[in-house]
Structures are given as structure tokens and as C-alpha cells.
Fold:
Amino acid sequence: MFSGIIEEFATVTAIKHDRENIDFTLTCSFVGELKIDQSIAHNGVCLTVVDISTPDTYTVTAMKETLDRTNLGLLRVGDKVNVERSMLMNGRLDGHIVQGHVDQTARCTAVEDADGSKYFTFEYPENREMARRGYFTVDKGSVTVNGVSLTVCNPTNNTFQVAIIPYTFEHTNFCDIKVGSVVNLEFDILGKYIARLQQL
Structure:
């Protein structure tokens, strides 16, 4: 379980294809604290550390299902990836409950200046069946974009905005998101449970 509060961004140093899997090797400041089998969210995707080959790098594996649902297959060497280690049970939940199970991707359609901050607009395919199962956003609700816990503004059936303050812009890969960029979405798990209960 995660909170959507990004620790930093890691940098992709190597990519290796193994049949339908992809091994990503990354570097970040906390490699020395990692261990094999540890869970880390990468752009919001929970992946397991499978190798720590050097003091400065670690490797995770993404399988086909993950690659099909997320933007990880678009990564290139040198790209920044938002990373967050799993929550400590005695810590504060500063964001919201994030599972690290990305639901789908969305595309950035607009970036607007907000006199110091920025508004990002994202669009995802409209699907009534998915919406019936809780895959939607609500005004002032929570959504996870590339692993970042954010508050929804101005939602429609298949779009929403988020406001990004300068600190978040500088310390996550929102600094690289432009119109046309593909991001990972995880909709609020509470909304999914409520939608499911209404079906029963």
C-alpha cells in the first residue's frame, strides 16, 4: 500500500526485454536501503525489486499485463520515474490510499499557467461499463497520476484537471509532462467499493 506522496524520481539506466517482460534498471538516492522482494511504486505501478546489481542501481520487472495498462512500456533510458516505497504502518497517510494497481492511462490535453502553479488536464477513453464499476473522478475527490496523490478539479465523463504547485512540479516527473504525454491513472479505491456495493 502507498500514499501517493512521491519520495523522489528515479532515473532509468537500462532496459532489457525478456520475452514479454521488461526489466527496468534504475538509480535513486535510497538504493542502499533496498532489499530483494521489496515493493516500490514506479509512476504509480507497484513493482518488486528483483536485483540490486550495483550499490547505485536496482532492477524491477514489468509483465505484459502491466505494460498493457500503463505507460511503463514507453520509458526510455534517461527518463525520470516517480518512486515511492510502501507505507510504514505507523506513519501518517499524507495523501490517500493508493494500491499501486494502475487502472489505465490518460493523455495530457492541456497545461495552463495558474499564476505560479499549473493546471494539467487529462483525458481517458470514455467507457460506461468501467464508470459503472467506479473508474471515474469526482470534484474534490482523489486520483493518482503517475503515482502522485492529487485532488480532482472540473471532472467530466472522461476528463479532469489537477492543480500542481511548484514543489510538486519540481520534485516529480510532472516537470516533464506536456500536451500529448501519457500518464498512469489509479482511481480512488473507495469509489470502486461504493460502486460495487451499489451493484449487489
